[in-house]
Write a structure and sequence with these properties.
The protein is mostly helical. It has helices at residues 9-17, 20-23. The two termini are 24 Å apart. 0% of the residues are buried.
């Protein structure tokens, strides 16, 4: 699992499509969007409000 903070899903898709493991056919990514409303204190900067 990789958690990424990005405002643009299309850019996330571009980055994962260019990953060397993907281009070699070793793995595939599935991007799932979610809203982080609860986080550990160290991740507070990434918390979103509804």
């Amino acid at each position: 699992m990789i958690i990424a903070v990005a405002g643009d899903r299309a850019r996330n898709e571009e980055v994962t499509a260019e990953d060397p493991f993907v281009t070699a056919g070793v793995c595939a990514y599935r991007v799932t969007e979610f809203t982080a409303t609860k986080t550990a204190p160290a991740l507070e900067a990434y918390r979103e409000t509804l």
